Amino acid sequence: MLLTHVVPSSRIVMSAGGRNRLLASGRVSPRLRRCLEGISLWLAVLLYLFVHPVYAEASDTGPEGAGEMHFVDEAGQRQGAATLLSTDYKVTVSGLIADTRLRQSFRNNSQQWREGVFVFPLPENASVYGMTMTAGERVIVGEIHEKQEAKRQYTRAKDEGRKVARVDQQRPNLFTTRMANIPPGETITVELQYQQAVRYQSGEFELRLPTTMTPRYMPGQALDNQPAQWSGGWAMPTTEVPDADQISPFTVLPEDVGPDSHRAAIDLEINAGLPVSRVSSPSHRITSTWNGSRVEVAPESDAVLMDRDLVVRWAPARGMEPSAAVFHEQWQGEDYLLALMVPGLDSGQRMPRDLVFVIDTSGSMAGESIRQARQSLLRGLDTLGPDDRFNVIQFNSQTHALFMDTVAANGNNIARARRYVQGLNASGGTEMASALDAALDDSGHRDEESSTRVRQVVFITDGAVGNEAALFSRISNGLGRSRLFTVGIGSAPNMHFMREAARYGRGTYTAISDLSDLERPLDELFGKMEAPVLTDISVSWDGRTTAAFPGRIGDLFRGEPMVQVVRGLPADGELQVAGRMPDGSQWQQSLRLDQAAKGKGLHRHWAKHKIDSLMDRGLTGRVDDEVQAEVTSLGLKHQLMTKYTSFLAQEKTPSRPLEAPLTTDSVPTLLPAGSQGTMLRYPQTATLSPLFIAIGLVGLMFSAAITLLQRRVFS
Predict the structure, then answer these.
(1) How many domains does the chain have?
(2) What is the pLDDT of residue 328?
(3) Has residue 85 been placed in a domain?
């Protein structure tokens, strides 16, 4: 910890006796006095320029920002982890479900016994259903427990010197692996199994595998009842993010973790049930090998840096795009059905819009992300028609709107908006709540013309916030007649925020991987926004009442499928879907259930949706005991990790001598590719010493100025 001694400015002021002795030695010439005064003035200006950013930086690390920051050790050296990490992904896609086996290998590169703690992302719709721990030749199958019970057993095994691993869910897309009693020089592997739904949009499938995370902004005041010393992450708990220390792993550069650490081997097998014409990736260079209708995909290099999401897209052969599909699974005596239906909405009708663009200009967007965001917004401005109105809002620590309200999309206003956007830079915090309020507020237009317009909000951000639930509640309560569309920016955006914000906003979402991949997803998104929307959707499973999720299908845009999973229905009868087109006409389509293909993991997919619907109740307040009990019961029954259940694997025999100390090592994540080094988070006790130095210099400067003025008076 760096210590700085600050001398009070009052001690620098020269005593009266000293001043008189100096004056007695001779008078200072007017020319020299003017020269000294000029130098003092310039020093004051330069010092102000120095103090202002230092104060801003210091205040950003305080309670109003992201909590306490940690950068370097006592010797001023960056601290790399003693625990090395390597991962292995094996993904198998069957129909609309991707099943992944993820292996995390922790190697103790030190001479002490270690506990490794690793905070890592998973897909936003992942359902973790299996875990094993491998230590040497021993393979121990993990079991699902109520979270508090898992913590108790983990602590006891750790204290007794037994090898033990625990995996917890912090957010639906953020998890923590804890591995205790790793022997010096040895490796222990934790294997997770999870599944996710493959996204299908506009005739193309997409799968995203996150490998790192963008450091999240933690709003709120520091909690007074928390220990003063850092104990988990780079952030301290706050009133709005009480678990900030649990979701803020250190972020470092690849050279900080060693040449063999934080690399991932990835193998993907696509068995879509229909011929695949092409496979592509906007994030990595990949190779694809066809074997009939099955495709094997892998990055060109054997191991890739864990500094960006892997995105893989594949398209069915022309004419083979699914317009409807149904899958069936029987599990523990119960039937589960999953249906997909793609309405052919493309009438070309276009309605006048009020379009509000919101762009994130916070510090986490610095580097490649802000360039992607600017280009995305400029692309959006190009879609404005002569009957549209629009506005541009930017936010970081503050929110600023270009216009007082939406204005006509004429040449002058669009040109002004383009100049405004091109001048935007990234700095400050991510105060998203005020930006959401400003974007969703449509009180400025209450005329008859506004009632005939479609009001749309495009939110461009990396989603790097820790208070997602509070923001979702704000969207749900303040949406009004608006529709919210999210654009994920950067190599590792918070896709949980993107998807859920769009769901609560009754819109849709997309993500930009890099500037070379900007046009396709944006053109697709803005094309959907211009196209007719299918609303008031009703679904009937052969006229029978059933537990279906999502319970209410939201609005559908061009190329978007309707997907619903149900429990308790056999594969017979007919599924009927109906909705209303923008011109008021009715749309209807049916699907025979007896043509269902064999599905796998549908019961977990249903349980995940059921759990999400229960947790939605927490947006209006604290989740009550009844909901918590039901979520826990579903997690235990379907062997799923939830907010209230954890996986635990432990040995029965101690391996660490009790007299041998155990050191905890928080394994960092890599800085997302394209981000600036200013986002690096290293361990260090926060200090305001630069600010104190500046204050001391200010005092010294004013003392010198006072002395010069007094000399002038005495002269």
Answers:
(1) 2
(2) 94
(3) no
Mean pLDDT in residue range 332-346: 86
Alpha-carbon torsion, ordered 688, 689, 692, 697, to 10 deg: -140
- Region 653-672: mean pLDDT is 92
Using CA atoms, how far apart are residues 180 and 117, in angstroms rounded to an integer? Answer: 9
Maximum mean pLDDT: which of 84-88, 281-285, 704-708: 281-285
Q: Which residues pair with 482 in a beta bridge?
A: 455
Rounded Cα gap, residues 505 and 498, in angstroms:
10
CB environment 427-453: b (16+ within 10 A), e (fewer): bbbbbbbebbebbbebeeeeeeebeeb
Residue 162 lies in a domain: no
For residue 381, what pLDDT is reported? 96
Q: Determine if the pTM surpasses 0.85.
A: no
CB 293 within 8 A of CB 272: yes
Structural domain including 494 reads 353-530
- Quick one: tokens of 339? 């249906």
The CA distance from 693 to 691, in Å, is: 5
670 pLDDT exceeds 90?
yes
* Spatial distance between the Cα atoms of 303 and 262, rounded to a whole number of angstroms: 9
- Interatomic CA distance for residues 367 and 376, integer angstroms: 15
Task: Give the per-residue pLDDT at 700.
Answer: 57
CATH number of the CATH domain containing 437 = 3.40.50.410
587-623: b (≥16 Cβ within 10 Å) or e: bebebebeebeebbbbbbbbbbbbbbebbbebbeeeb
CA-based nearest residue to 638, from 170, 174, 142, 130? 130
CA nearest 274: which of 325, 239, 332, 238? Answer: 325
Q: Is there a domain that residue 16 lies in?
A: yes
Residue 227 CB: number of other CB atoms within 10 A? 9
pLDDT tens digits, one per residue of 104-140:
999 998 899 999 999 999 999 999 999 999 998 899 9
364 in a domain, yes or no? yes
State which of 530, 556, 577 marks the end of a domain. 530
Residue type, 420: Y
**Domain closes at, from 478, 509, 530:** 530
